Amino acid sequence: MRIAFYAPLKSPNHPIPSGDRLMGRLLVRALELSGHSVEIVSDFRNFAPTPEAAMALEGERQAELSRLKDKWRQEPRPHLWFCYHPYYKSPDPFGPILAAEFGISYVTAETSYSPKRNATGWAASQASVAAAIRQAAINIALTERDRAGVEQAIPDARFASIKPFIDTAPFRNVPLQPDSQRLVTVAMMRPGDKMDSYAMLAHSLRLIEDKPWTLAIVGDGPMRAQVEMLFSDFAPGRIDWLGERSPVDVPGLLGTSGVYVWPGCGEAYGLAYLEAQAAGLPVVAQRTGGVPAVIEDGVTGHLTAEGDVERFAAAIGGLLQDPERRLAIGAAARRFVLEERSLEIAAQELGRILNAYAGVGP
Q1: 3-class state of residue 146 by DSSP
Q2: Are 290 and 142 in contact (CB under 8 A)?
Q3: What is the mean pLDDT of each run of 10 residues along the chain (362 residues)?
Q4: Which domains does the chain have, with CATH numbers?
Q5: What SS3 state is found at 306?
Q6: At 273, which helix (H) or strand (E)?
């Protein structure tokens, strides 16, 4: 069946890499694997940092909506509109209208709804999100945390779940030559949650500076200088700045490391955690946001209490001191992702959900 795919926060075609872009691309591939043809019908970014900025986009939104209507009047319309990650700062301005006008199914994935935002100037945007959730044939959650929040706020909507997943193919045959003392992280360098995580990581490593470790940092971004400053007081050679790397290079870099370390401040869940585990690495992260959806605490890694720098440092130190345990957890992590969180498994689940709720079985 023909599926119109739209991601209002960041199109899969966006030039800047991020977890949102990667998840969008993975969902497109999963839908295709489940037997459907998928078209990314718009690259329009309906993201606004403030309610005033949201109002300023109205003219552009109407122009794009008109373009899509004209297109569908002249060409075969899709059978379904699939919207990835609508929320109050980035609602879907097209799908609900087009689905109603052209008589097609409407589906969301990774939507969220926060009632507290109604009192902060976002009531109109929140109402739009809530109406879309109610209209959807099915709302697909990627974490139980998000699903519970939306179900509580909008109990009359319809919900299903899939687990966060990755394409495991690049990791299945990667040579694993782990260095038990080599820590690694892969993260963009930008303001907000990423900088908070880098700051917590630097603070934590200072607490175990007496232990033998090196840290490889894969990533770049507008806050590169500030991130480098956070780690500037460590001894020469302890921090290996690898910069931004191609996705093709990442599995090999992970495969030569020992432990993946990233606090995950504000993470929705973090696909990088799944990639690290697929490469046989135990993960140390915080028990925050949707992170528990991708790490099995005590089995594939360690989750520490949010903001507890000492416990985070101790979890890293414990793995550094116990190579056998590190290898056992890393092996469990690799099995977990390869056997339970693959693109192929997600495609099967998506196909089943769409067939059951949206009437678009292949």
Answers
A1: helix
A2: yes
A3: 96 93 97 97 97 96 98 95 97 98 97 90 94 97 94 95 97 92 97 97 98 97 97 96 95 96 94 97 96 96 97 98 96 98 97 88 45
A4: 2-165+342-357 (3.40.50.2000), 169-340 (3.40.50.2000)
A5: coil
A6: helix 271-278
Nearest to 38 by CA among 84, 70, 73: 84
Closest by CA position to 348, among listed 337, 359, 340: 340
**Residue 261 DSSP symbol:** E
Q: Which residues contact 293 (CB under 8 A, 6 or more apart)?
A: 142, 143, 144, 145, 163, 164, 269
pLDDT for residue 354: 96
∠ at Cα 266 (284, 8), nearest 5°? 125
**In Å, how far are 181, 244, 300, 313 from 249, measured between CA atoms?**
21, 10, 23, 28
Give the three-state DSSP class for 105. strand
